[in-house]
């Protein structure tokens, strides 16, 4: 159908998105395929194409640029390259593998949409393993940049984002993390975006959960990096604000894998509290990535630590490593372990993507994998809208595109810092179901109403 057949709101949308052209008349004079690019943007914004999922077809060969009706070459390349910086090994290995798959699924779906719409474009992803190591993350970003990659999904850890942000900002590389939550990285007007709320809200959620469980004395133990320090401090402050005795427990090094000293210190502190106040009023909040599994393995050797409630964070929630560990999984059940992670309520797009993940991985992914899927669509949509593979232009238009985007994770509204503006926290626990340990949905904490809804 020619563009001229569109009417009403659709045409108004097209005009508003054609601002990168000199005037509306020029838009109407463009060739059919160039017009289709803008129509694709409209379809994505109104939710027709977002989350589009059909069987991918073979990529079609295409010239490197698009030619307009006036014979001018478009600055939009036919192959849109999106890099991926994910921890395929290290302390976030399970989560990194899930996010890597999410980016690949999104690229397949976007390319299927392009092919079925007759658009001469293709998304290509180049994924690198950060090893959950900030220094490696920087090396891998530099490698991507040397290949001409200017848009990157990831990294996942806040320590990685912090270490690459200087290089990214200096070289105008747009970074879009699905899971970095450190409040210290909530900075306006840079090239770092995050499709997740920062940890000031998670600190509130953890403290409120401890209060709901009736805990009066809570020991916080945490991973010694920027993310861990910020979330631990936020949690301690929120606990104290609720009148809960907030105790600073051991801060462990991310460079070690044996936590004998820290676990012994924690056991001594918890034992003293239990002797004074009773086990039912004492709890432990573990701020960790998947190394928390080893910490729990060693903690299981102390009966005192097995007798109090434990709470975890988004760094370990829904970890396949935890439920696959014969010691940590049993310990999690004994301690009524629950963990918080931001997410969205299920919707048809979410459910469809979940089925595809389960078919390939055998399990449901963490919510951050869904963020990565939406990030691929948001980046592609913003590049199309800008009309160039240009981070400077895309960084300016991305917040507007996100405000009109409803993907598998719901509304993608960003705040003034380029971070997701709103989110709820889901609570997951570990259960033994027919002699198999698995994560189970427990409930949700609504940050807007400060209320829990339990299953």
TrEMBL record:
Keyword Transmembrane found: yes
Ranges for domain Receptor ligand binding region: 100-430
Keywords: Membrane, Transmembrane, Transmembrane helix
Subcellular location: Membrane
Keyword Repeat among UniProt keywords: no
Assigned GO CC terms: membrane
Residues passing through the membrane, by range: 36-54
Signal sequence segment: none
Record Pfam families: ANF_receptor
Protein name (record): ABC transporter substrate-binding protein
Species whose genome carries this gene: Fervidicoccus fontis
